[in-house]
Predict the 3D structure of the following.
Amino acid sequence: MTKHVLAALACVCCAAFASLVPHAEAASVYVVRPGDTLWAIAGRLGVSVEALASANHLSLTGTIQPGERLVAPGGAGAHSAGAAVASHPAVSPVRVLRMLPSRGAAFTSAVVRTALRFLGRPYQWAGIGNRGFDCSGLVYRVFSAMRLSVPHSSFGQFQEGVAVPRSALAPGDLVFFHTYSYGASHVGIYVGGNRFIHASSDRGVIVSSLSEPYYAYRYLGARRI
């Protein structure tokens, strides 16, 4: 092989590598948009909010500004997209997302921010916030603040909106579980990073993980209002 051929091959390889660098960087850096929260960004990247905060030396209660560049832990953007395809090989994730209605980043961030304001409130059967919340009462109160009317029962809320595959969950979606009764007997609001906020009968308004065995076993489905 001549020196000219070797040089040509080296140039081709360098050009190919250089063309890949911007794509790799794009998959590992997220530029904060107006209305974004750490919880919403973690949900988009498919990582836990703790991992996102740690990778960027932020606190969970800290603030982020539009235009700020956040590092996605472990190239999360590319990984989560690949995982979605692998878990649903017969369904195109792009097609699923196109079929689902989108409320936009400003709306979903407002839902999450409003819900998080009630963290720590006590549980009260049928409560909508005066003295506490039950699970559907929390959803009712949050969506009322968004000027959207939903029933004050988890069973009724499960009939609203459109079904969302678990692989396409986004902040602001409602997640449902069968707990004390068959069917949608418990509901929470997805906040991203595989987590949801809900009114627990023994702990009040808390944030839990969908991966916790109790909820993973009882997961029923999700709806987008």
